[in-house]
Amino acid sequence: MATIKIKQVRSRINCPKDQKRTLDALGLRKIGRVVEHEVNPAILGMVEKVKHLISIEK
Known about the structure:
33% of the residues lie in helices and 26% in strands. It is of the alpha+beta class and 58 residues long. It has one domain: CATH 3.30.1390.20.
């Protein structure tokens, strides 16, 4: 299955609590952290929710 790399590029300060929880669920806790996930509908939904805080590499 395909994988994507997700990198946090903006701060989570002043973000709503649900967006902070989404970043935690993705494994992103600090700016510059990169995680790799398999592509599935759940991950893509989380990425869509916090797309203004992250960058995506395929």
